[in-house]
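Input structure tokens:
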């Protein structure tokens, strides 16, 4: 086994003509000189557990990137090239990395992800060299390159708290972006766009703002997560769209996965476990009333249980559900 692992490592670092990696690049995959760790993570065939649920503006921007890549001949005919670089901006967990993976899958290209832990070196000048090797390698491969947490290597150069080494990284990155070939797609993601050096910001041709999901988007996302496990998934999606208001996709997915695990190990029903997610502490009074009415209207819990979960009085719940029924409306808001 030890010999097999050593041979595999050698093949990856210096592929022969018979190696599958030879089809992707003539140059060996870059490694840190000291640690011998690979500076990149490669997903040869990117896949998604769930299809991304995107805000309309985000979906439009990503579709345009795809259309440009698929219409290169038309662009060349008028002296243009497709966008080479895209910057994804937004809070953690809103789907930036998933969007890059989706782009790579739709384009039929491998996704290459910069491994910051391996790139950052304690030796003066080594980090910049590592970064240059990563970008040079990615240029030689028909791929989508993802620079996640871009703010870690592209901070403002006027920040007095940063050392000269990190400032040199910005210069390296600027040079590499300017020299990026139109055949490849460079995607960067950051949670802190305000920390980026202005020169880096200007280098990206497409900038996409990823917002926190709204109620309708959360409802669609929760339905996709629960539809395989619950016959009343649609009812829960409306309820949880209120309870998860202001939360990110990753937080929502983590919470639901935790309740599925709890249901499996305790023997309780998934409905019972999901009811524990109905938190109303951070909701306004109107939202808590909507949530309580939705719980009762869909038959998930009784009025008494809804009162215990949300703190809304049973009289208020009865009045709200009565009004909803008389008006022919559901208790779950569309937005």
């Amino acid at each position: 086994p030890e010999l097999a692992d050593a041979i595999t490592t050698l093949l990856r670092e210096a592929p022969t003509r018979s190696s599958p990696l030879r089809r992707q690049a003539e140059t060996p995959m870059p490694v840190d000189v000291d640690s011998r760790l690979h500076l990149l993570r490669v997903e040869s065939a990117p896949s998604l557990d769930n299809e991304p649920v995107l805000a309309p503006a985000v979906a439009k921007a990503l579709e345009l990137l795809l259309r440009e890549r698929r219409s290169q001949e038309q662009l060349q005919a008028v002296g243009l090239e497709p966008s080479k670089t895209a910057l994804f901006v937004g809070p953690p967990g809103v789907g930036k990395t998933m969007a890059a993976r989706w782009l790579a899958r739709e384009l039929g290209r491998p996704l290459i992800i910069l491994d910051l832990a391996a790139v950052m070196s304690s030796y003066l000048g080594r980090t910049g060299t590592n970064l240059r090797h990563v970008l040079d390698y990615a240029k030689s491969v028909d791929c989508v390159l993802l620079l996640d947490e871009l703010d870690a290597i592209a901070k403002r150069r006027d920040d007095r708290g940063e050392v000269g080494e990190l400032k040199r990284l910005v210069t390296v990155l600027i040079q590499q972006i300017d020299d990026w070939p139109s055949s490849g797609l460079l995607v960067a993601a950051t949670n802190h766009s305000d920390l980026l050096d202005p020169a880096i910001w200007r280098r990206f041709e497409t900038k996409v703002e990823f917002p926190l999901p709204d109620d309708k988007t959360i409802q669609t996302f929760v339905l996709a997560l629960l539809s395989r496990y619950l016959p009343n998934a649609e009812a829960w999606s409306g309820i949880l769209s209120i309870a998860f208001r202001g939360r990110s996709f990753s937080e929502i997915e983590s919470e639901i996965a935790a309740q599925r695990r709890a249901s499996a190990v305790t023997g309780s029903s998934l409905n019972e476990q999901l009811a524990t997610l109905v938190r109303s502490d951070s909701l306004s009074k109107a939202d808590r009333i909507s949530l309580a009415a939705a719980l009762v209207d869909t038959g998930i819990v009784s009025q008494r249980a809804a009162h215990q979960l949300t703190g809304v009085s049973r009289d208020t719940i009865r009045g709200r559900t009565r009004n909803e029924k008389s008006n022919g409306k559901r208790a779950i808001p569309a937005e």
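Strands lie at 40-43, 85-89, 111-114, 144-147, 185-190, 206-209. The two ends are 57 Å apart (CA to CA).
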